[in-house]
Amino acid sequence: MVTYCTLYVAQRLNFFESKPIDMKTVVVFGILNGLSIGFLNLSLGFNSIGFYQMTKLAIIPFTVLVETIFLNKQFRYILCLNFSCSQKIKFSLFLLLVGVGIASVTDLQLNLLGTVLSLLAIVTTCVGQILTNTIQKRLNVSSTQLLYQSAPFQAAILFVTGPMMDQYLTKKNVFAYNYSPIVLGFIILSCVIAVFVNFSTFLVIGKTSPVTYQVLGHLKTCLVLGFGYTLLHDPFTSRNILGILVAILGMVLYSYYSTHENKKKQSGDLLPASQVLLLFLFQLFPRTTSSSSSSFLNQFINQIFDFFKKNPFWRKHQK
């Protein structure tokens, strides 16, 4: 709700222009994001820290799976040495997940309720982040406009379910708590930080992808471990160091190959010259049946024009 109020003031001050979005889309999207936050917190409450970290690690492969199956999202096939960039991106994500797992997963304690909550957290988080990216691109709205429209519904679902869940789990009423000035100060600080977190989340997912946002989230995990050791003198083992180094290597590779793929997309979908020549020859010679040299020359020229008119990669880049 603080996020909505902040954006409302910003909109009234003309920092951005409000854009109407289909109400059904906004309601479903806001409720889904609210449930995602709730299930993640419940997963942390009912599982060990190690299993909760495994839940967060599972979000990346599940996101890739959902986008591949339901959105038909595929990486462009660009040759990079002996592997495609798609394979190298997946390998870099694998390195990242292994590294974060080594560095942060310590104990795995399983229970049925915690496992179910973790699965619900994974599903709602993945779908919510995919929708964050898809809605912005398909409806041509900015991250600020989408957040402004959906924040009230996200706050509403948390306001209704949060206190009831706290009452059920802790047997305490959150409204009956004696809030001291220090506690209120930290709550206000938390709300201010949450505004920036919500804004940056929608911005990063909209400008990049849900997978890239999760990669940044795991970078945060590595930084938390590092700062915990340097500032708070938390225990730090060789396993933590190895995991962080492997994770950083995966992040660097992911950034490199993703940038390389985006540059290829921006430069166009032109095929390599050798493939163009092969396609042209395959189309040309089966249809060249005339023995007359002049007839052959005319047909050769016509074949050239027919070839470049028919192939989409040429037509796409014609000015």
UniProtKB/TrEMBL annotation:
Q: Which InterPro entries match?
A: EmrE-like (IPR037185), Sugar_P_trans_dom (IPR004853), TPT_transporter (IPR050186)
- Chief location: membrane
A Pfam family of the record is TPT
- UniProt keyword terms in alphabetical order: Membrane, Transmembrane, Transmembrane helix
What is this protein identified as? Sugar phosphate transporter domain-containing protein
Taxonomic superkingdom: Eukaryota
Location relative to the cell: Membrane
Membrane-protein topology? Multi-pass membrane protein
Sequence intervals crossing the membrane? 26-44, 50-71, 91-110, 116-134, 177-199, 238-257
Q: Which GO terms describe its cellular component?
A: membrane
What residues does the Sugar phosphate transporter domain cover?
Answer: 22-255
